[in-house]
Amino acid sequence: MSLGSAREVGVAPPLPVAVAPTAPEVLVRAIEDGGGRYEPDPARARALQWLGKDAPALRRLLAGSPGIEWVQLGGAGVDTWAAEGVFADDRTWTCAKGAYSEPVAEHALALTLALLRSLPTRVRATSWGEQLARTLYDSHVVIVGGSGGIGRELIRLLVAFRARVTVVRRTPAGEGEHRFEDLPAVLPGADVVVVACALTPQTRNLIDEAALRAMPPHAVLVNVARGPVVDTDALVRALDSGTIAGAGLDVTEPEPLPPGHPLWGRSDCLITPHSADTPEMIRPLLAGRLRENVARKVRGDPLVGVVDADSGY
């Protein structure tokens, strides 16, 4: 049926969705599989999948595309976009929050196991050395931000280790959950502390000197959220003094962590270059989120991953 005949019988044409600044084939297919139509010209689109990181470029594109009523961002975190003020309009904004939870939770588990098994020390070893290792089984894991997709997936993975999990979040919703303000009272019993929360004004430097001192000396810290949630200088001091046993960081402040920084080269610190969710991992997951949201938009259902501009995520 042609577009003209569709209009004649009252059938709405497919939702036109643009992808910019580039349009990978996997995302074009996702739009079509969701019941939409890929529109190469954003000025003719009603929705946009934005893959860039340049806020001014996004604002320029939207200024020339007044028909776009829904924008989906490619990342899970929106702290930089919130800081740039891009949400200050009447469009609907969604992000990929929750879409990448499996690989990021997997990475958090990998960092945790590596620290408990003293792998940062062993990869540097040139002799047999001591038998230094602890088990994750029956341990107490505190997840900061456990209500999000990463936290929920990590909790599922930890079931296999019989770990006791305590969740610390902005708004507790059940038994065993605590507010961010309760963190100093929760940390003394932790064996592992995993940071998986969004970066907001409330969570910036949430893991500070006081929080690190509240952790037991045998505890390890893992951060797969955002670098500024952890006070980097305080973390260096905590490792230097033996206040905590180790740290596994996929994100840092600053990022990238510059050569010569005191966190590099330590046997009590394992750093990965923000690789918990590489482009190869996330592209099909983002395609799945785009396909689902296009289908929801076509049906008139609520979208997944809607950004709460007031909360910052």
From TrEMBL:
Alphabetized InterPro entries for the sequence:
D-isomer_2-hydroxyacid_DH, D-isomer_DH_NAD-bd, NAD(P)-bd_dom_sf
Signal peptide positions are none
* Every D-isomer specific 2-hydroxyacid dehydrogenase NAD-binding domain range: 110-276
Pfam families found in the cross-reference section: 2-Hacid_dh_C (PF02826)
**UniProt entry keywords in alphabetical sequence:** NAD, Oxidoreductase
Entry keyword Oxidoreductase: yes
Q: What is this protein called?
A: D-isomer specific 2-hydroxyacid dehydrogenase family protein
